[in-house]
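Two proteins were folded this term; both appear here.
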Amino acid sequence: MSVLAAIPPMNSQFNINITATYAYTSIWMLQGNPTTSNCAAQALLLDTGKDLDAQTYPKRAQWARGVLLWNVLQTQDVNTVEKLQTFVQKLPWKSLERQDTPINHADFSITIAGYVYDFAAQTAIQPTASFTVQGQPTEDQLSRVNGDARAALDRIYTNGQGTPFISPSRPFC
């Protein structure tokens, strides 16, 4: 599957509006300037492996490729991209018995880059974060934060853990 073909499903899955220009600029930032007109290296970023066959699982394969592209664009980190892709490629897809709709299956979930991706249920969720746990404020700092402020800080910490490094609405210059 090409990057161009993965953009619309990714946009739908994450309720965003990434353009092809933005996606390719981000991939260029990750991989560097292509030395040829061959786009194989870009397409390989979306490789879900031999067991997630688009003929057997068209919806599941499309969803997984959308997640892989989102992860590439969100993290801009080769190690994170490889970790998620390896996870997807090693999943026991045949254990789903040709089911192409969201189902519960414990082995298909991973937490990476601020999201919990469940490839069986086809969900991507930001886990709730806590200002007091992640921010580790001192007792003095905590004593100055009321309930409303703590709730606002929890929302900020939750949103911050899955926020892309580069805003999808503004290409990197």
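Next, the second protein.
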Amino acid sequence: MTALATAPLAACSSSDTSQSPYDLSYSTLSDALGVAMGFKEPRAVSREEAAAVPYSSIGYRIGDSGQGLLVLASQTGQTFLWTAASHVVIVTEGGRITKTAGFPWNLASTIFQGEDPAIDFNRSRSVATTRLLDFPDLTRFGIAISGTFTAAGPETIEILGQPLETIAMVEDCVCEDFGWHFQNKYWVDKDSKFVWRSEQYTHPKLDALKIEIFRPPG
């Protein structure tokens, strides 16, 4: 895959990536989760800190908060579960965040009515979507979100000092039940369609959850 060949940590020879974290023993995975980190001040995980974790990993932050690091704990098809010793959990499917845990407010379930364009960005035209979300902490379930994906154009981004050529995608979303209007953004590899970075709203009471791939699965 082209995206993996230009991965932000692909050039780091000090880490062994031959073993995927979902193949690890429980004790080894516990060690991996123990090195996952988060910062209260508004700083980012450094390239050296990310490279010290020899497993598939992502950086995350809420709004403008400090950045944390999660490692890949399990994979089923295109569904990836990222977690840390802090018990923060983010589940992604393709480029979409579908579940969270460990945040002040969490998303318990995402069900799409039809295909999710965030799984495959091989489209040049606008695409409309509808999905149903569950928010147990609000005692609200099956909340409908309608959205429209559009391409914003080419954009070069940088992750851990590595430049990446992407296509920026914008998803304008409306939740009539909550009077909630928001915009998700995705930065998609222009060749492989791999989502390197995104800013997604997962809860009406939470700022955007921003994630970027440090070391991709595979």
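The chain has one domain: 2-215. The first strand starts at residue 57 and ends at 62. These notes refer to the second protein only.
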